[in-house]
Every structure is written in structure tokens, then in C-alpha cells.
């Protein structure tokens, strides 16, 4: 299964928790600048980030109730219709029909706002195999890598992941027992033996399988010999041909304290992953972002 | 208390904003920074030989450098003690981020000076350096946020937040967008929502 950055698909655009009611945020997807915002009542919209009046970035504006107000000349746009509803300089005029913002299909699932820029993609992706249905999916962070989506996807697909809970202290050792040769078609599929950095006698055996779901979501499912099981999930966002967004999520059973540590663990990895992709010229083959 | 001030200066705004948070009355002395370049002439150079704004004069005390002025004001006038807590860890962390505000984040100011006032600077380099600084700040806010910490140097807003805020918020004037820094964006909103927050051209109120 390969990663398919086909424009006709849905992509994870933003973390839901980072857009509060009456907030507006923006970034690009396939070079298209998109504003995503919430009405005061919480409904979410994804619009082309360009005011039909004079082209101002709508994300510089603000939200009043169910309306987005452009910062430049204050034109109001109604959330449900994306239609101009009020022009402050001409209070008696109804907004012209042509002053309508291009809106994109969007919905929220698994803590992310999903967007499609193509009208035909009205059907929501199938998330039934996204993770372990009965487990909660936790959002760690979104991170941006200055490299092309294709390359970032390929590197992540074939990477080795160490789930939270293993001892990453100095001196830890990772031994990959089996890894499939046809990696590039299937994603990584490996067994790893993880030797603790603190307690040299302690070894954990992991079985991991990375799969591509819904085209641009990588799910690394792991099982260890202590009975721990879970998934690490990367939802990829193609921003342009030089930049890729990676939303890092994970599933599994965690107490609230270990949840914080797990987030730290994956965030630390995410930063090292970003560095290793952006600095490929500085590395030796043995570089492992986990250690 | 007298503040030598220029309305479009983010460094001067650090002081106006903090004086507002502390609810302190003061007098401003407007300096014709642009186009007059008054800060480069002998009368002003007597006040600050570096030829920079802001300068604060409070009775016998005369201070330049926004970060130094924030330390002075918090130490002298913040009765709550929360803006500059007197414990070694907090003071060390705050000093670290004050320095970051005065150096790395100033790359954003340089890009803005180039774009708005046509300063002869390497704007692309300034933008790249500003992005590197914003990435560091965003990573930091993400990581402390996991444990519920919402401010740069602790669980309360401090002068480190005040010092870092203006040139992060104003960066778009210099062509530096915030799109890649969601944790920074949420932090900006939190500052803009604090009681007695004030605006300046380019930084508006939340509501
Ligand atoms: N380190 C000083 C820097 C102050 C500074 O650069 N101020 C600008 C105005 S925002 C200035 O006066 N620049 C002088 C010039 O560009 O000629 C501080 O933090 O206050
Ligand atoms: S550009 Fe948006 S109202 Fe004029």
C-alpha cells in the first residue's frame, strides 16, 4: 500500500483542540491557503483564505456570532452560506451575491479537522479501521517538516518506532530482528528487541506493523511481550512541495500521569524525526531518531 | 514616570503593555523615530547613547532596554510578585526568555523594519532566523502545555511573556506567518485576553 497524496482525498488539516469557538486559524494544503474557523456556537468551517472584496487573508479577521468579519474593510460573511451579509461602508445594501467565499467540505473526527478541497469528495473517509475502536485516540502535536510530502511519507512509512513505556535511558539498545525487504510497498513490518538502558537484563520484544490507511494516514500498530498494545498514528498533510504537516496521535490505555509522559515521549521523537529528515546530509546511516 | 516612546515600536509597546497590566500611570515623551530619526540626534543620545527606544525615567532611575525596564518595573511595582517571582528557578528561566526576546525574536523586528520602513537589512535571513526562533518557542509551549503550563516561564504570565509577545504578534508585518506554530497562536490569544491588555497598531484586541 502506498501513500497517495491524491487531491481527491481528505486530509487532516488542523487539531480540533487548537481552534476554540470564535477562533480562526490558517495554513495551506496543496498550496491553497485555507482558513478554518469556528462560530461562537462551535460549528466549524473551512474557507479559501481570501476575502472576495480585496483579497485580504480572512484569517486576519475575527468572528462575531456566526459571522466572519474581514479585518480590512469589515465585510461580514455568514458561516452557513459563506455569503457576504453586511458591508459596513454601505449599511443599507444587502451583500452582493457575487461576494461569496469559496468553502470546502470539512468535518471533525479523532480530534482532527478533515478537509477536502474537491466537491466530489462528499463521502467521509472510512475510519472503521483507523485504530482500536474501543480505545481513545490521543492527540500529541502537529509538527511541520520542511521537506516534500512524498519524501516525508516514505521515510515515516519505513521508520522504526519505539512505543512509550520502554526505557530510553542512555545505553539503551535496539535490535531489529526481522524487517521485510519489500518495505516500500508494505510499510515497515518488524520485530524489535529493546534492551533497557538502566536494567541491562530487561529486554522487551516488540512486534510492529506500519500500514497506510485512508491514503495519507500511517498507523503503526505495536504489541510487546508484556501485553501492551497500541498504535502510533501520523496523519500527513501536504502543504506544498517543500513542506509537510505531520499530526502525531497515539492510542492505548494510559493513566493521566502516564498520558503526559507518553505525549512527551512522542513529541521528543517528533522533533528528532523532523531534524533527521531536514538534515539528511549530516547523518550517518545508523542514525535512529529514538535514541 | 516618563517613557520615551514611539507608537509603532514593539519594544516600547512591551513597556506600555506591562504598565497597563500593572495599572500604573505614566507620561509618554513621543520621539519622532520615523521619519525624523530624532533618536540618532545628540539630545536623545544624551538619554540613551545607543540611540534606541524605549527609555524609562523614574525619579532618579534612568533605564534603557525593554527587558531591563520590565525587570525594574516588576521588581518595584508588582505587589503580587507574580510577574517576576523571586525564586532562583523562576528568575533563571525568565532571564533566559528575556534574552531570547532581546536577541532571537528581534529577527522578526528586523524583517518588519525592512518591509515597513525600508531599512537596509537582509530580510530573507531575518525571516529565516525568526522562523527558527518561533519554532523553538512553539516546541517549548507544546511541551510545557502537556503538563498544563500555559505560559512561557511558569503557571502564571510573567515578564518573559510580555517581552516575547510583541515581535511574535507583529511578525506578519515582516512577512512571517504563524501558520506553522499553533501553540504560539493559542498563547498569543491568551495574552490578548488578559485583563487590562492594550492594543497597538498591528496588534488588536480579541473582541
Ligand atoms: N535591546 C533594546 C533594543 C531596542 C531597539 O532596538 N529599539 C528600536 C526601536 S523598536 C530602536 O530604537 N532602534 C534604533 C534604530 O533602529 O535606529 C531593547 O530591547 O529595548
Ligand atoms: S478586503 Fe476584506 S473587506 Fe475589503
Q: How would you explain this protein's 3D organization?
A:
The complex is a heterodimer of chains A (291) and B (207). With 291 residues, chain A is mainly beta. Chain A has two domains: 11-116, Rieske Iron-sulfur Protein; 132-280, Alpha-D-Glucose-1,6-Bisphosphate, Chain A, domain 4. In chain A, 12% of the residues lie in helices and 38% in strands. Chain A is built from three helices and 17 strands. Chain A has a seven-stranded antiparallel β-sheet with strand order 11-17-16-15-14-13-12, with helices on one face. In chain A, strands 1-10-9-4-3-2 form a six-stranded antiparallel β-sheet, with no helix packed on it. The longest helix of chain A has 23 residues, at 256-278. The radius of gyration of chain A is 22 Å and the shape is elongated. The model of chain B has no long low-confidence stretch (mean pLDDT 96). In chain B, strands 2-1-3-4 form a four-stranded mixed β-sheet, with helices on one face. In chain B, strand 1, helix 1 and strand 2 form a beta-alpha-beta unit. Chain B has 207 residues and is of the alpha+beta class. Chain B has two domains: 2-77, Glutaredoxin; 88-192, Glutathione S-transferase Yfyf (Class Pi), Chain A, domain 2 (Up-down Bundle). In chain B, helix 1 (10-22) packs parallel to helix 3 (66-77) and helix 1 crosses helix 7 (159-169). Bound molecules: glutathione and FE2/S2 (inorganic) cluster. Residues 9-11, 39, 51-54, 65-67, 102 of chain B line the site of glutathione.
Amino acid at each position: 500500500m502506498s501513500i497517495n497524496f491524491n487531491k481527491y482525498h481528505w486530509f487532516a488539516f488542523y487539531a480540533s483542540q487548537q481552534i476554540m469557538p470564535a477562533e480562526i486559524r490558517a495554513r495551506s494544503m496543496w498550496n491553497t491557503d485555507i482558513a478554518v474557523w469556528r462560530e461562537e456556537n462551535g460549528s466549524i468551517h473551512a474557507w479559501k483564505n481570501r476575502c472576495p472584496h480585496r483579497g485580504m487573508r480572512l484569517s486576519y479577521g475575527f468572528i462575531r456570532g456566526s459571522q466572519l468579519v474581514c479585518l480590512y474593510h469589515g465585510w461580514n460573511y455568514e458561516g452557513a452560506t459563506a455569503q457576504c451579509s453586511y458591508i459596513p461602508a454601505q449599511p443599507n445594501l444587502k451583500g452582493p451575491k457575487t461576494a461569496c467565499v469559496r468553502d470546502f467540505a470539512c468535518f471533525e473526527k479523532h480530534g482532527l479537522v478533515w478537509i477536502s478541497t474537491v466537491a466530489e469528495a462528499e463521502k467521509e473517509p472510512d475510519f472503521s479501521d483507523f485504530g482500536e475502536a474501543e480505545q481513545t485516540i490521543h492527540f500529541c502535536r502537529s509538527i511541520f517538516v520542511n521537506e516534500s510530502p512524498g519524501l516525508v511519507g516514505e521515510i515515516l512509512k519505513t521508520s522504526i518506532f519505539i512505543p512509550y513505556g520502554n526505557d530510553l535511558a542512555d545505553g539503551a539498545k535496539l535490535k531489529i530482528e526481522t524487517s521485510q525487504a519489500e518495505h516500500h510497498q508494505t510499510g515497515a513490518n518488524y520485530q524489535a528487541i529493546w534492551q533497557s538502558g538502566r536494567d541491562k537484563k530487561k529486554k522487551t520484544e516488540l512486534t510492529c506493523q506500519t500500514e497506510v490507511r485512508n491514503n495519507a494516514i500511517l498507523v503503526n500498530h505495536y504489541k510487546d511481550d508484556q501485553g501492551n498494545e497500541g498504535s502510533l498514528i501520523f496523519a500527513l498533510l501536504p502543504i506544498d512541495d517543500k513542506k509537510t504537516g505531520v499530526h502525531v496521535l497515539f492510542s492505548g490505555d494510559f493513566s493521566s500521569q502516564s498520558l503526559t509522559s507518553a505525549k512527551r515521549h512522542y513529541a521528543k521523537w517528533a522533533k528528532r524525526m523532523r531534524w533527521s529528515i531536514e538534515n539528511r546530509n549530516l547523518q550517518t546511516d545508523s542514525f535512529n531518531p529514538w535514541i | 514616570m516618563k517613557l520615551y516612546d514611539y507608537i509603532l515600536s514593539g519594544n516600547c509597546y512591551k513597556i506600555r503593555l506591562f504598565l497597563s497590566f500593572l495599572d500604573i500611570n505614566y507620561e509618554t515623551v513621543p520621539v519622532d523615530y520615523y521619519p525624523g530619526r530624532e533618536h540618532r540626534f545628540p539630545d536623545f543620545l544624551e538619554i540613551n547613547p545607543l540611540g534606541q527606544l524605549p527609555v524609562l525615567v523614574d525619579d532618579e532611575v534612568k533605564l534603557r532596554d525593554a527587558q531591563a525596564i520590565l525587570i525594574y518595573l516588576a521588581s518595584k511595582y508588582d505587589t503580587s510578585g507574580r510577574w517576576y517571582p523571586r525564586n532562583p528557578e523562576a528568575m533563571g528561566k525568565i532571564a533566559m526568555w528575556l534574552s531570547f526576546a532581546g536577541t532571537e525574536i528581534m529577527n522578526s523586528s528586523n524583517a518588519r523594519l525592512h518591509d515597513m520602513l525600508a531599512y537596509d537589512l537582509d530580510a530573507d535571513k531575518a525571516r529565516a532566523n525568526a522562523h527558527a526562533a518561533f519554532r523553538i518557542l512553539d516546541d517549548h509551549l507544546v511541551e510545557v502545555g502537556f503538563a498544563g503550563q500555559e505560559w512561557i516561564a511558569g503557571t502564571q504570565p510573567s515578564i518573559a511573556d510580555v517581552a516575547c509577545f510583541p515581535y511574535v504578534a507583529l511578525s506578519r508585518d515582516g512577512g512571517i506567518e504563524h501558520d506553522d506554530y499553533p501553540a504560539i497562536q493559542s498563547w498569543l490569544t491568551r495574552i490578548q485576553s488578559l485583563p487590562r491588555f492594550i492594543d497597538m497598531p498591528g496588534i488588536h484586541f480579541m473582541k
